[in-house]
Specification:
With 117 residues, the chain is mostly helical. The chain has two domains: 79 residues, 434 Repressor (Amino-terminal Domain); 36 residues. Strands 1-2 form a two-stranded antiparallel sheet. Helix 1 packs across helix 2 and helix 2 packs across helix 3. The chain is elongated. The N and C termini lie far apart (65 Å). The relative contact order is 0.09. The model has no long low-confidence stretch (mean pLDDT 86).
Length: 117
């Protein structure tokens, strides 16, 4: 009988993926593992080494997919031009930025006062 070990870190990641995907079937498909295998692992956190490696590999692939999507989004944002926004949109963005800067100034001031007391 193969030796099984508990892997709490992997279990936490798998449970998060199942919650995100909202089903064991969808999560298993994303990890490229059997649904029953994933369900059993999520139930007790134990699996043989080969199964753990498969799930870790699947999670690593998801991480690299996410990274590639973020890079793609960044490239799309680089292509923004001022003509893409109306004057009203630009005014709203400026007002938001002004409010954020004012909030940061207040927070820094409060922090400086609290540390000097």
């Amino acid at each position: 009988m193969p030796k099984v070990t508990k892997d709490d870190l992997l279990l936490e990641k798998v449970k998060a993926l199942v919650a995100q995907e909202k089903s064991y079937e969808a999560a298993a498909a994303r990890l490229n593992v059997n649904t029953t295998t994933l369900w059993r692992f999520a139930k007790n956190g134990t699996a043989i080494a080969r199964t753990r490696v498969s799930m870790e590999r699947g999670l690593a692939n998801l991480d690299s997919e996410s990274e590639m999507q973020l890079r793609g989004a960044a490239r799309r944002h680089e292509q923004l031009t001022p003509q893409m926004f109306s004057s009203a949109d630009l005014r709203e963005m400026r007002a938001l930025c002004d409010r954020m800067v004012a909030w940061i100034d207040q927070a820094e001031s409060a922090l400086a006062k609290s540390t000097s007391d």
